[in-house]
Amino acid sequence: MPHISSQYDPVFYWIIGLGLHFFGPQFWFGRAASALAAAVILWCLGIIVRQFSPRSESSLIARFCFLGWLPLQIFIANQKSDLPALAIGILAITGALALKRRATAVIIVSLLVPLAFFTRRSEFIPLAIAPLLLAQRFGWWWGLWSGVCSLSIIATGSWLLDYTSAGGYAWQVWGLQAEVPRSLSLMLTHAGAVAMSPATLALAAIAVFFAWRLSDELRRQFKNSQALETIFFIANNSRLAIFLYIILAAGLAFFGASLDGSNLNYFLETGAALAILAGVAWDDVEAIISPRVRILFLTTVMLGATLTFLRVGRGEFFRWAGENGSGGGVAYLDEMVGLARQNLRAGDSCISTRLEMAVWSGCRAAFNFV
């Protein structure tokens, strides 16, 4: 029989499998998992920002900016692995920054990073950022140890998946994906859609300001210190680690958005990283702008986020309900299920990545990860 390449990873299928086991075929459990993951990310953003600024306003800025991020508004209740994986990855970064006990932080981070990777294989940036933050807090040996442990778990898990799959896990998730066509115009289309959001413009302005302040700080360090002192300053600067997180997330987003069939979900992690930066930089922003400008800035972010959310919600409603009673996506699903019922006998086995549709069609669903 042919081998089916799965578009998702094992931990996400375990999450969806729980919903199927306890509640039967439905879509709401996977959607609820994404919404819960978004709530976890918002909670983590506040904790991360508090490690740099104790003011609650800075944490709120980070959360509002992420809530206004267009890709989040589109995928906040989607049955996809993006938000659950990002939530686990952000939890790892939060643990690296906030957990007080060294051994606890190292163990939890070393486990969460591989868990994020096996929820969504492109969620590997925490593998670089979380150990770096641990190294800055507890010493480079502990950060290195955490990184080696996480990488060992990922390598061992990938080898076991490859060894136990007749189709070849490594080939399916890496070799086959490498053959997907890429398009610069598609990447620019996705990037343009994200850039049109008011929250994106506000975050971009803060990012430019943050980069300017950071570069000025580095220039002073280069001017007044010896080379070795400067190296230690760079290696132990958590603000630089946050900026590195943005660069890596943006690079991965642009690469992923160029793949044929991609969507704005590739920009989710970039939004989370930019939101962290906005909260971290807010104290510096307040110091140079007047109260009126701050109010205008916050109003723009919140109003833009609200209008974008209403626009996305309206589009989602018509996508499923259709215009003028046409039925939209619901009618399309009903048509697919009806067609399957006409051509299948009750109890036939169906191999599908859409278990709910198989069961609704009267089939005995058979899903194989590989």
Task: From the structure above, extract its key features.
370 residues, mainly alpha, two-stranded parallel sheet, 17 helices, globular
How would you sum up this structure, described in words?
There is one protein chain. This protein has 370 residues and is an all-alpha fold. It has helices at residues 10-23, 28-50, 56-67, 70-75, 82-98, 102-117, 126-138, 140-163, 169-178, 184-195, 198-224, 227-235, 238-257, 268-288, 291-321, 328-343, 355-360, and strands spanning 349-351, 364-366. It has a two-stranded parallel ribbon with strand order 1-2. Helix 17 links the parallel strand 1 (349-351) and strand 2. It is globular. The relative contact order is 0.13.
Low-confidence segments, ≥5 residues, pLDDT <50? none
Derived structural class: mainly alpha
Oligomeric nature of the chains = single chain
What sort of overall outline do the alpha carbons produce when their principal axes are compared?
A: globular
The overall average pLDDT, rounded, is 82
Strand order, main sheet: write it out: 1-2
Written as H for each helix and E for each strand, in order along the chain, the element string is: HHHHHHHHHHHHHHHHEHE
Helix percent reads over 70%
Q: Please state the CA-atom Rg, rounded to the nearest Å.
A: 23 Å
How would you sum up the major sheet?
A: 2 strands, parallel
N-to-C terminal Cα separation, in Å? 12 Å
Q: Tell me how many strands there are.
A: 2
Number of helices: 17
The fraction of residues in strands falls at under 5%
